[in-house]
Amino acid sequence: MNKMLNHPEIDRFADLIDSSSRIILTCHVRPDGDAIGSTLGLMHILRALGKDAYVVIPDQAPRSLAFLPGFNSLCVFTRHEDYCRRLIDSSDLILCCDFNKLSRQDRLGSVVGEAKCRKVLIDHHLDPDHFCDITFSYPDMSSTCELVFRIIAAMGLYSEMSVQAATCILTGIITDTRNFSVNCKNPDIYEVLMRLLEKGCDKTKIVKEALETHSLSSVKLHAYAISNKMELLERHHLAVVTLDKDELKRFDYERGDTEGLVNEPLSIRGVVASFFLREDEDCIKVSARSIDNYPVSKVCEDLYGGGGHLQAAGGEYVGSLDDCRRILLEEIHNYDKYLPPHVDKIS
Ligand code: 5GP
Ligand code: MN
């Protein structure tokens, strides 16, 4: 089980945990299943070791993750800023999960950056910044949760993993791989799945709650977006969906309601890349997905200063939704060279 993780820092990480009593787990803004699963999973394991462990997140988590054990204990920076600051100020160690740059934490990033305690990065995004004392960066792993599992196993703590911890960790793997359909080429991931199922996780329930249950208004919003707001650019094998503030309001939009929408155009024959542009309060949130190794991470980085993984990336654009869309349509031809040599016509 430890064969993929041969990190010289495992012992040093174990010593840091041993010598810390209050430990904070934190993740990126607009947290997803991997961000919440990795932090809550570690929280359960650290509490089982007798540590005073808390999860502090930059902003609210989606309702689809409310089934996770410990969800109600999440400390949300945008809601209880003073409390979160006090927790961080009095901590001995901060574990930064599922992000590679402090800017991915919005305002919480400067609080974490300025904290005097030790920090450890546990992440699977490319090119991490070096703001931590120990950096576990494994871009080849399916998810941060897979990495958490491997670190815990390498430290000899598999036996400390409760079904609650295992449920959180498996949720992150399931959401980042969309139930083992993407980012899971390495057969070893199924050995991790087996070890987590042996803890008693209910995989059917995780898939149902985290990926397949939506509110009525959210299902209607998806249908509206695909039938009325999807543009298909035949020549570039591209789909673009935009939703503005008024449309979101009309469908009683709540955080998490558009989760998965960006994947839907990819099921159309001939579509290689899909972009979803959503008008949020403070910016236009860009989400992108692709197949056949078309590098949406590069597009998001070049056009919006974002990033992510080759086939799943995002960014934030400050400006109007129209401009955000226009930039994409004007620049996308520069990336046609990354399209596979033979692609079906969109049909
Ligand atoms: P999502 O589309 O689910 O929000 O994000 C997909 C992937 O892109 C995730 O791996 C996430 O970490 C990354 N990502 C999303 N938004 C941003 C962003 O604003 N900046 C960067 N650097 N990565 C992002
Ligand atoms: Mn992730």
Structure description:
With 347 residues, this protein is an alpha/beta fold. It folds into two domains: 7-211, inorganic pyrophosphatase (n-terminal core) (Alpha-Beta Complex), CATH 3.90.1640; 216-338, Diaminopimelate Epimerase, Chain A, domain 1, CATH 3.10.310. The protein has twelve helices and twelve strands. The chain has helices at 10-18, 33-48, 81-89, 108-114, 144-154, 163-176, 189-197, 203-211, 216-228, 245-250, 296-304, 321-331; strands at residues 22-26, 52-57, 75-76, 93-97, 118-123, 134-137, 230-233, 238-243, 273-279, 284-290, 307-309, 312-317. The chain has a six-stranded parallel sheet with strand order 3-2-1-4-5-6, sandwiched between helices. Strand 8, helix 10 (245-250) and strand 9 (273-279) form a beta-alpha-beta unit. Helix 2 (33-48) runs antiparallel to helix 6. The site of manganese (II) ion (MN) has 6 residues, from loops. Residues 32, 104, 287, 306-309, 312-316 line the site of guanosine-5'-monophosphate.
- Heterogens: guanosine-5'-monophosphate, manganese (II) ion
Task: Give the strand line-up of the largest sheet.
Answer: 3-2-1-4-5-6
> Describe the biggest sheet?
6 strands, parallel
Q: Report, as a whole number of angstroms, the end-to-end distance.
A: 44 Å
Instruction: Indicate how many domains the architecture comprises.
Output: 2
Rg on CA atoms, Å: 20 Å
CATH topology of the largest domain: inorganic pyrophosphatase (n-terminal core)
Question: What percentage of amino acids are in beta strands?
Answer: 15-25%
Based on secondary structure, the structural category is: alpha/beta
What is the subunit arrangement here?
single chain
Shape: globular
| Mean pLDDT figure | 97
Strands, total number? 12
Name the CATH class of the largest domain.
Alpha Beta
CATH homology group of the largest domain: inorganic pyrophosphatase (n-terminal core)
* Count of individual helical segments: 12
